[in-house]
Structure formats: C-alpha cells, structure tokens
Design a protein that fits this description.
Order of helices and strands: EEEHEEEEEHHEHEHEHEHEHEHEHE
Structural class: alpha/beta
Strand content: 25-35%
Radius of gyration: 19 Å
Largest sheet: 7 strands, mixed
C-alpha cells in the first residue's frame, strides 16, 4: 500500500482547516516501527499547532498530519529479534509535526517511544493515555517528586493531564487539592483528590494555603490563575507550569514571590509509559475517555476540545480493532 487516509492541514487556522486526504504511507528508517493506527488521542497541543501556535514552527511542508497519541498494531518491526513483533498491540506518542502524526492510518515511530498496550484497555482507551499520562508523570513524579505528606494543588483536575496528575500524586501519598467545575467534584474525589475546589463558587486562593507544589495546567492566560497560584505556595514552594507559552514572565514572577518555578515539556518516553501501563493494568490508575469521533470528524473533535469542558480525553477512531 503506497497511500493512506489521513486528516491533514494545508495551512494553519480554525478547526475547519482539518480535512481528509490521501497521503503517502511513511517509510521507516533505522530502529523505527511501522504502526497501523487504530485510535489517536486529541490533545490541546494539536489544537494550538493547528491554529498556528504550539509546535507549528516545526511544520516543514504541507500537507501536514497532526496528532501525537496513538494506539495500534505493529506492521513492520525494527528488526527480527526485537521484543516487539509484527502483530503486537502497542501505544505511544510521536513528535508531530516534526514527524508524521497519528491522525492517519499508519505512522512510523522509534522503538524508544513505544510500549505494549495494556491488555485491560481498548485501543480507544489506550490512545487517550500517552501524552496526558507522561506529562502528568513528568510534572508530578519526576519534577515535583510527589511523596507522603506533601501538599499539592493541581489546576484543571478534570482534564486529560489533570485526571492523571491527581491519581499519580495520590498514589505516591501526597495530599491532593484540585480545582474543577461543579459537575466534576465527586468524580475527582473518586480519583483520589482529598479536596476539590469548585472554581465556579470559590476563589482557590481563599481556601488553599501553604502548598508545597502547584501543578499549573492553565497558565496565566485565564483569570490570572498563574499569578494567583504564587500566593498559595509556602516560601520556597514549587510551581510547575505545563501549557507552553502560557506565562512568559513565569520565572521573574516566581522569584519576586519567593518561590521556585519551572516549565515542563513531555518526552516520548516508552520506558516510563511501560511503568504507567503497570498502574493501568493493576487498576491503581484509570483513564477516562469523554468523547470518541471518527477520523473524518477531526474538526468537530477540535471544536469540542477548545470549549475547555472536556472530562478526561477526546479520541479519534481511525480503524476497527
């Protein structure tokens, strides 16, 4: 097969720039795998890139295929003796748009960015995991070093990254406070949040104090959430800012407030994803898929994502499986 279906963009813009097209099946090199994509996760970075922000500077030519999350089946392995064989179910993330994205029937990915799909998850569920879970793990475990007795505030707890961040922080023993809308309060408590602040009724800085860490999944782009977060940290506390470009003055503002701060960028790390897989298999961590769209409904998926009301993740179904 030389051609495949893919959702592409010919230029950046509104969701309607996404459209189906026939494009060449990518060829693999070195230790890459050719993967048949069954499902693709939809992430905020996809929408930002499509709109001309995010990682759009890495688009070298058009048409471009977006999408980082995928779950699928190995069509060609890196080499004969590799532990991942043809026919194996795998999932992972690709660094679109520098490389071909997951809104397509096939993609290539290096072995270091893959993990075996958890048997307990469908492909749709698995496709919702990599970017969000790896981001949450990096921010909560690698950077914040979540541990027993630590007080962590997680903004946007009901989102893709947020619902994993709550579970990881709780798993490692931290006392977790999160912000969310009214409809998500009970759900986030079920996921392990000790306190849920309904931001529609309460300003979080009025009730949250002496936090060791703030995991900022919003930035300073809405209602000064970032700046307000600095005031709830204890002296020397840490703010981890995840959304790219959301707070240009972060480091200076944190220094002026007497706290520490850092951004975070997620790597396509198959080894860490394998660890997360064990937590998913054991039931210690759950993934929530809010909506599933067919591949040709990618514009609708992006429109829904940009409402900011998604609980968990949105996924594109690319093929049966």
């Amino acid at each position: 097969m030389s051609k495949m279906r893919a959702v592409v963009i010919d230029s950046t813009g509104a969701p309607d720039v996404l459209h189906l097209a026939k494009v060449p099946v990518p060829g693999r090199i070195s230790a890459e795998f050719l993967i048949k994509v069954i499902a693709a996760g939809v992430n905020p970075i996809d929408a930002k890139t499509r709109a001309g922000k995010g990682t759009s500077a890495a688009i070298s030519s058009y048409p471009a295929v977006l999408g980082c999350d995928f779950s699928g089946i190995v069509v060609e392995s890196a080499y004969e003796a590799h532990p991942l064989k043809v026919g194996d179910e795998v999932y992972g993330m690709t660094l679109a748009p520098r490389f071909g994205g997951s809104y397509a029937e096939f993609l290539t990915a290096p072995s270091i960015s893959l993990a075996k799909k958890p048997r307990s998850l469908s492909h749709v569920e698995a496709a919702a995991v990599p970017v969000a879970a790896l981001t949450a793990w990096g921010a909560v475990v690698d950077v914040a070093k979540a541990h027993e007795g630590q007080r962590i505030l997680i903004h946007a707890g009901a989102g893709g990254v947020g619902h994993f961040a709550i579970q990881f922080a709780s798993f490692f023993g931290a006392h977790v406070t999160t912000t969310a809308s009214t409809r998500n309060v009970e759900w986030l408590q079920e996921l392990g949040a000790h306190e849920v602040i309904d931001y529609t009724a309460t300003r979080f800085e009025d009730v949250a104090h002496d936090m060791d860490v703030v995991i900022d999944l919003i930035g300073n782009v809405q209602d000064d959430t970032g700046t307000r977060s600095l005031s709830v940290l204890k002296p020397g506390g840490l703010l981890v800012n995840v959304p790219s470009g959301s707070w240009p003055t972060l480091m200076a503002d944190a220094a002026a407030a007497g706290v520490r701060a850092t951004g975070y960028r997620v790597p396509a790390d198959g080894a860490t994803l394998t660890v997360i897989s064990r937590l998913l298999e054991s039931g210690d961590v759950r993934v929530f898929v809010d909506q599933v769209f067919d591949l040709d409904q990618a514009p609708t998926a992006h429109t829904s994502l940009e409402t900011g009301r998604t609980r968990g993740k949105i996924v594109l179904k690319v093929a049966d499986g």
